[in-house]
Write a structure and sequence with these properties.
The complex is a heterodimer. By secondary structure, chain A is an alpha/beta fold. Chain A is built from eleven helices and 23 strands. The relative contact order of chain A is 0.11. Chain B is an alpha/beta fold. Chain B is built from ten helices and twelve strands. In chain B, strands 6-9-10-3-11-12 form a six-stranded mixed beta sheet, sandwiched between helices. Chain B has a four-stranded antiparallel beta sheet with strand order 2-1-4-5, with helices on one face. A two-stranded antiparallel ribbon of chain B has the order 7-8. The chains are: A alpha/beta, B alpha/beta. The interface of A and B includes residues 431, 439 and 440 of A. The structure holds adenosine-5'-triphosphate and magnesium ion. Magnesium ion binds near residues 42, 43, 87 and 172 of chain B. Adenosine-5'-triphosphate binds near residues 18 and 44 of chain B.
Chain lengths: ~475, ~260
């Protein structure tokens, strides 16, 4: 019995394979935050005046805000003056124009992470924007996308080349004043990805951003903005890793999605920031604001996330369902192991008529992990015929971990239909023994059960990501767990 | 050489000794029935044979197919051909019955150096076994035992046995919870698997099953020991007279 219990508890304890550090000279600014720092970041990025003003406004607002305390997580106070707000690998001259000009050290880093940037080497069908600390270092397949009018690349570049688009949509879904971390991000964000898919265009390949934190004591504050114009469709993937360090690092990102009439955006995340060691030392604080606006009729935004990393995750990808008949979806697997804490979920705000939302949340807790689902469904008076289905399941591996569920519901229209299901289960010794009696090893039994638990979410992921996500959970159907 | 030889087997759970010296020899081709009062240790014996770790073996030995069985992990015992049809089959939500059984069959095949079956071959195999067991296709696509009726769970156990083709099958009260028609089907499935290479230990309380699956030997397990053995007629005697006479007088006194 003890053997199965141990395996259950330790099955997710695989070593963090992405924890190496790249030796590269960095251009970093001194620690601390002030108006001068905000100005310095903006100047380094050669930004237009309006953007600097936007940042300063956000910064001044941030000063009036308090760090939120309502989340079901605990950690020592963050000293915001002890963080480095900008660090970029030292560029040679003006920054790379093509992959050939990217520092070979960086190319090697991404190769080691399993994301070869060399276009020829890339799995056909995925364009990658690689963000290293504070800057985007390379974007692949840009030319090919441009032929169809699709803009995909770093945020900084978009500010220079498509200022009108950026200005029109920046902060339109997550205002700079939205919350403490969103305000902080708005003041100091350094880079990120920008994507615009024009009217009627179905993006022919998966777009993806790979975020890598490398420098020590640096915060990562990236911003992603995706706009799907009328009738456009795009599927976007986001991945992330960081070196193993025994101090905590802050990652406070903002993601904004805008879907106009009949447009669809699918946004998938496999979040694998360094989770800290077995005693809970180190790891990333992942405090992220993600929100999508279904502005147009019949539009659809679908969030899928597999959250396995970070010491603390605080994240609620949400949908504002404004257009009539618009659809919002949230599929999530969150794993907390050792001393990881996650407080994650979604908010679905129904404004338009006949809007529908689906929430499927799967929380897995192991070790001393604490996993909280926090979800809000709000149906406004105008949302006649709105429907929501929510399902929240928790799976416990071992008996020192915890699962918590906080669903909030607010219905102001009597025609709305809302359905909520929740369950908590534990992998039992009897289940494991039953499998073993049929010849299946403990590791395979655990991975089979965990995979079965997550499959409704995994099937929402694009193929390659589903495979990666499975591996991340220690779930390999060939049985190579542990 | 016997397929299974149990010699003076003792086992406990917690501080309590449940098996107090079991001796039993089972040859390939034989069917042995084990009967006995509730709580006498029948399921414990079945679980000990399949390697459940919560039961601690405190003495004796078990030789299976020439090997020390107690040395093997539960999964290795299964791969070596030991199958337990559980008295209480376990539900595994989220894992499809079909997927589960394919994984089981393939690990066993792999263990014997056979090629793993792909989905197509597996379905062919399963279809045939489904006919014998009159299994509903729908049960295969559902999660393992999840929400199955009592009878469906039992039928599923025997269906798994039919697919995995063990050398030694231990059926723990497979008849309980089955209606009369299902009992016939299940017994038919079990009988179809009788072969000179395969042995079965059938734990039951009822003669009814043993008139369908006719055993070569019947044993009575009481208070952790086999207190009487005989041929198939012993089951009929027991049905008529109960177990009372079989207890050792001194042990029965003072027990409730
Ligand atoms: N997990 C356990 N924890 C504590 N006691 C146990 C456990 N398993 C079995 N026992 C005890 O061991 C004894 C034998 O149980 P066992 O299940 O082997 O009986 P059985 O002969 O199969 O009975 P039945 O005919 O009712 O199925 C019983 O007294 C039972 O309460
Ligand atoms: Mg029993």
């Amino acid at each position: 019995m003890s053997e199965s219990t141990n395996t259950i508890e330790t099955f997710a304890n695989q070593e963090y394979k992405w924890g190496f550090v790249t030796e590269i000279e960095a251009d970093a600014i001194p620690r601390g935050l002030s108006e001068d720092v905000v100005r310095l970041i903006s100047a380094k990025k050669e930004e237009p005046e309006w953007l600097l003003e936007w940042r300063l406004k956000a910064y001044r607002h941030w000063l009036t805000l308090k760090e939120p305390e309502w989340a079901n997580v605990s950690f020592p106070k963050i000293d915001y003056q002890d963080i480095i707000y900008y660090s970029s690998p030292k560029a040679k001259g003006d920054g790379p124009k093509s992959l050939d000009e990217v520092d070979p050290e960086l190319l090697k880093t991404y190769e080691k992470l399993g994301i070869p940037l060399q276009e020829r080497a890339i799995l056909a069908g995925v364009a990658v924007d690689a963000v290293f600390d504070s800057v985007s270092v390379a974007t692949t397949f840009k030319g090919k996308l441009k032929e169809q009018g699709i803009i995909f690349g770093s945020f900084s570049e978009a500010v220079k080349e498509h200022p009108d688009l950026v200005r029109k949509y920046l902060g339109s879904v997550v205002p700079a004043s939205d919350n403490f971390f969103a305000a902080l991000n708005s003041a100091v964000f350094s880079d990120g990805s920008f994507c615009y898919v024009p009217k009627g265009v179905k993006c022919p390949m998966e777009l993806s951003t790979y975020f890598r934190i490398n420098a020590k004591d640096t915060g990562q504050f990236e911003r992603t903005l995706i706009v799907a114009d009328e009738g456009a469709t795009v599927s976007y993937l986001e991945g992330c890793t960081a070196p193993m360090r025994d101090t905590n690092q802050l990652h406070a990102a903002v993601v904004e999605l805008v879907a106009l009439d009949n447009a669809q955006i699918k946004y998938s995340t496999v979040q694998n920031w360094y989770p800290g060691d077995k005693e809970g030392k180190g790891g990333i604080y992942n405090f992220v604001t993600k929100r999508g606006a279904c502005r147009g009729v019949n539009s659809k935004i679908s969030w899928t996330q597999v959250e396995t990393g970070s010491a603390i995750t605080w994240k609620y990808p949400s949908c504002i369902l404004q257009g009539d008949n618009s659809v919002g979806e949230f599929y999530s697997v969150a794993l907390t192991n050792n001393y990881q804490q996650a407080d994650t979920g979604t908010k679905m705000i129904h404004i338009g008529k006949n809007t529908t939302s689906t929430i499927v949340s799967k929380g897995i807790s192991a070790g001393h992990g604490q996993n909280t689902y926090r979800g809000g469904v709000k149906i406004l008076k105008s949302a006649t015929g709105a429907r929501n289905y929510s399902q929240c399941d928790s799976l416990l591996l071992g008996d020192k971990c915890g699962a918590h569920t906080f669903p909030y519901l607010e219905v102001r229209n009597t025609s709305a239909q809302v359905e909520h299901e929740a369950s908590t289960s534990k992998i039992g010794e009897d289940q494991i023994f039953y499998c073993r009696q049929r010849g299946i090893s403990t590791e395979d039994a655990v991975s089979m059960i965990v995979h079965g638990f997550c499959k409704e979410v995994f099937r929402e992921l694009p193929m390659e990501f589903a495979v990666e996500a499975q591996k991340l959970l220690g779930v390999s159907l060939e049985g190579s767990v542990g | 050489m016997a397929l299974l030889e149990i010699k003076d087997l003792h086992a406990r759970i917690g501080d309590r000794e449940i098996l107090k010296g079991i001796n039993l020899t089972v040859n390939a081709g034989e069917v042995h029935a084990i009967m006995g009062p509730n709580g006498s240790g029948k399921s414990t014996l079945a679980q000990v044979l399949s390697g459940r770790e919560m039961y601690v073996v405190t003495g004796g030995e078990v030789i299976y197919n020439g090997k020390d069985l107690l040395d093997l992990s539960p999964e290795d015992r299964a791969r070596e051909g030991i199958f337990l049809a559980f008295q209480y089959p376990v539900e595994i939500p989220g894992v499809s019955n079909m997927y589960f059984l394919k994984a089981a069959l393939n690990t066993i095949r792999k263990h014997h150096g056979l090629e793993e079956l792909d989905a197509m071959d597996f379905i062919e195999l399963v279809k045939e076994k489904m006919k014998i067991m009159k299994m509903d296709q729908a049960l295969l696509n559902r999660p393992v035992n999840t929400g199955f009726s009592g009878g469906e769970k039992k039928r599923n156990e025997i269906f798994q046995m039919a697919v995995l083709e063990p050398k030694l099958a231990v059926l723990d009260e497979t008849d309980s919870g089955l209606d009369i028609d299902a009992l016939r089907v299940v017994a038919g499935g079990v009988n179809a698997m009788r072969s000179p290479e395969r042995a079965m230990i059938v734990v039951t309380h009822y003669q009814r099953l043993l008139s369908e699956i006719v055993p070569d030997f019947v044993h009575v397990l009481a208070e952790g020991r086999i207190v009487k053995s005989g041929g198939k007629e012993l089951a009929l005697e027991l049905e008529a007279e109960g177990y009372a006479d079989l207890y050792d007088e001194r042990e029965a006194v003072g027990k409730v």
